[in-house]
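User: I'll paste a sequence; please echo it back and then give the predicted structure.

Assistant: Echoing your sequence first, then the prediction.
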Amino acid sequence: IDDTKRKELTAGLEKLDEKIASLKKSKSTEAIQFLPDVEIFSKAIRIALTEDGFFDVKEVSGAEKVLAEGLRRADELAVADTRLLSWRNLGSAANPSTNGYFTIVRGFRSKLDGSLQPYGVVYRPRITTDGTVKKRADIWCRGRSEKGLEMQFLSQRMSNPEPAPAPGVIMIHPFGRYCNANKLAGEIDTLEALEHAMSQYPIDADGVAIRGFSMGGAAAWHLAVHYPDKWFAANPGAGFSETPKFLNVFQSETLTPTPFEQALWKLYDCPYWALNLRNLPTIAYSGAIDRQKQAADVMAEACWALPDGNQFELTHIVAPHTAHKVEPKARAEIERRLNLIYENQAKQPRNKLWFTTYTLKYNQCHWLTVERLEKHWAPATVTATLESKEGQQVINVFPTGLTSLSIHFDPGEISSQISSLPVQIWDGAAFFAGNIQRRSDFSWSAHFEKVPQSSGSRFEWRPVSPLTVPSGLAKKHNLQGPIDDAFLSSFLFVGPDGKGQHPEVDQWVQSEWERALREWRRQMRGDIRVVSIADLKEVDIQENNLILWGDPKSNSKLASILEKLPIRWDTTNLSLGNKTFDAKSHIPVMIYPNPLNPERYVVLNSSFTYREYDYLNNARQVPKLPDWGVIDIRTSPGTRWPGNVAEAGFFGEKWELP
């Protein structure tokens, strides 16, 4: 970018920032609500100018277009009734169509770090016979683009409708926090973009499909198997569906994982979760000569290899003589099938569910919720039925690998004429048979746990009173680890407020702190919120995961909770369980329920755990460290590890050390 264009864009950005500053002074809460729809343009141009975000001279015109739209929106927001804002109207004349498609970009502030994140919307109107607009929506996860930063994304999504949705379908294009196959922070970005879009446009909550191609196909696979009750259909194309086989085929890399790395593959490797697709109509797509056909082939094998009579055939549309693209005839056939699925989906509760999980992070399928596991990273599977017997609805649940579950139906999902439901639970060793009662609002909710019988060594399933208050620490949904899970909800960095026990440790902490701030911005496209210990408030502790950096001497907040953490740490020794390490050359990284607020995490000395080496291939971008680890800092941090991992592992189901 030449100096003249840089100066013009800089002057335009200053003008836009002045308008935004003026809008922030508005007393209208509605105007403030729509500020992110303007601020995304400022962020995009600023990053492009200050972080070498231009990769081609042709991108200058795109930046000019992005800046102009930001200025236009700022002016409109200053004077318009927010109900009439052009970018809220899918068919507004202010958003000229491309071949009949309207393209719009929107923005929101993420709950993770408060950062501005964009997404795109594409729509082609179609009026149904009753005069209403169809409200099916497709989420389209994008392909890999290392050069597809905020400015490039906005420029493309403002004018390019491809991949174009069917008429009457709203297509949502998440930014996905850049280039991570919609995993980790990118996963939350996808869900947040959908939530925001549903608050703005007439989207059928039961009519959202998850789709994508290439890297976006990998995203669609993972979002399908982990959230099988969130979508009416899934359509993954190409991409990858797991880590080890894909890297062996495409990188000629034979992995030699540690036991904890191999366990962590189960978080995102989709073949482990194939059973969940029995709940979700899925249409895989590949080109016949596309090497990335491997992703669907692996999933097809996993679906057909399911045990206990659960195997099924994966529908896989393969376009003849086609490489890495979506062939037009195949696209039309996929749309035909998606429309049939949408138009014919049942509105009643599912009468049979199949669900498997390896972590309480993903624990729900329609009316069934897994509350506790026997052991994380081992398979837990449930089959459940809602069937009629002699005019009476009966629930049967067949769990394995779990110790607690819940059943829930909203008002109206079960006939209002029924006030009591028979429930049977049988896992081959423990049994329950009894009735659950309708709640006062005609909803249904029941919680069961597997407990020892009062006499003998056997177990039984038993209902839990809704008045029972849980006691003690236990892994549960969104409080189960590993370390990376702390960065999938709101978090704050809290750095040292003094010198530490050893200069070597202080140096490592400072280096990793700076790297964490830099790489979150670089890879997750946000700015980490940093709070000093002096400024940390009770509301911060209640609403955020705390990421504490330092040792008991350098970080007084860490020192204040140390006795309630499962480590012993002084000037001489660092001990976890029966293992002791030299405190001068070792430092812990870990995640644990915060003793100051056990509903949130505390993390010691870590950000997300994959590093620079893993940026080279999205299949590598998975958690690398478990719940806890001890880092030998005599080995300098590198592109794969923060030092030598002397010891690492998972806490048990009650957050105990093994």
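The first helix runs from residue 3 to 24. The CA atoms of residues 454 and 570 lie 44 Å apart.
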